[in-house]
Amino acid sequence: MTAATAPTFEHAIYRSLAGKRVVITGGGSGIGAALVEAFAAQGAQVFFLDIATEPSEALVASLQQAPVAPRFFRCNLMDLDALRATFAEIIAAAGTVDILINNAANDDRHKTEDVSPAYWDERIAVNLRHQFFCAQAVLPGMRAQQAGVVLNFGSISWHLGLPDLTLYMTAKAGIEGMTHGMARDFGREGVRVNAIIPGAIRTPRQTLLWHTPEEEAKILAAQCLPTRVDPHDVAALALFLSSDSAAKCTGREYYVDAGWLGA
Ligand SMILES: NC(=O)c1ccc[n+]([C@@H]2O[C@H](COP(=O)([O-])OP(=O)(O)OC[C@H]3O[C@@H](n4cnc5c(N)ncnc54)[C@H](O)[C@@H]3O)[C@@H](O)[C@H]2O)c1
Asked: Which of 49, 106, 211 maximizes ligand 1 atoms within 8 Å of its Cβ, making it the mutation to test the pocket?
């Protein structure tokens, strides 16, 4: 068990997830690592993509006792050739992907006046573009088997209008539109597509970079529930939405944010 999962937390078991082939992007740390752990514990066959080799390999090592040990693929999702090659390798090894979780992102801050066209492209590539192309890689297989789940990670940030995050928020707003479009286009073929909207989640990166004690106090004061949201809380929602228990849930956004309704 890694730091991503609190020792006291226990996920529900969804029998419909056992044996499912699950691809998780950005699974090496933060929320992604909690997703890898949670799906592996369900007996799913997990493949995760990340650029961070060290934490990803450590995560794989910590989960060797899982019913099916997860597999790590080093892949920079901004490189579409590498992305396509990685999905081709996974599909060749495992067959159709049953569940895709588009989780990877990067929330670096910036000032509008400093944004160049190249930086614009890079921010959209790291936060939005790969979600579309990962889905494109798995949707034909899902269509053929008349079943599949795609979960796209959005963010509460643009709903609140947070400072110095315009490009990230632009990408995250686009993800909700993309989710609606894919849910419509693939719903008749049994594929469900939803977006998860995390609030302020206590991940190592957030704790290191942005969550000062003052910021923490502000967030807690703005939430209906004055308690921090952890990666395993997000994983709990992802498990439900991926399972057959959510058979009638598609084309929507689901928040996990302790009710962060604003200041
Ligand atoms: N943590 C929060 O408070 C929060 C809030 C709102 C939304 N979200 C969303 O939840 C998701 C997970 O967030 P997190 O906080 O765990 O992020 P994180 O930064 O802690 O982890 C992201 C993972 O993605 C990987 N990654 C980044 N760029 C990549 C690339 N080009 N190719 C491959 N892998 C790459 C990183 O190495 C890392 O392991 C993201 O979509 C994020 O936007 C998080």
From this structure: 106
| CB-based contact 91:97 (threshold 8 Å) | yes
- The residue with tokens 């997000």 is 234
Dist CA 28 CA 25 (whole Å): 8
* Residues of the chain predicted below pLDDT 70: 1-8, 263
- Distance from the CA of 136 to the center of ligand 1, in angstroms? 20
The set of protein residues with a Cβ atom below 6 angstroms from ligand 1 is 26, 28-32, 49-52, 75-78, 103-107, 126, 153, 155-156, 198, 200-201, 203, 205-206
The H or E element spanning position 234 is helix 231-242
Query: Are 168 and 123 spatial neighbours (Cβ–Cβ below 8 Å)?
Result: yes
